[in-house]
Amino acid sequence: MIVVLRQDTKPEQMDNLKAWLHSMGLETHVSVGHNHTIVGLVGDTSKIDIDLVGSLDIVESVRRIQEPFKNANRKFHGEALVVDVAGTKIGGGNFQIIAGPCSVESREQVCYVAECVKKSGAGLLRGGAFKPRTSPYAFQGLKGEGIELLEEAKAHTGLPIVSEIMNITHLPMFEHVDLIQVGARNMQNFDLLRELGKTNKPILLKRGLANTIDEWLMSAEYIMAGGNENVILCERGIRTFETRTRNTLDLSVIPVLKKLTHLPVIIDPSHALGYAHMVKPMAMAATAAGADGLMIEVHNDPPHALCDGAQSLTPEAFDDVAKAVFQLRPFACKYE
Question: What is the pTM assigned to this prediction?
Answer without folding.
Answer: 0.85
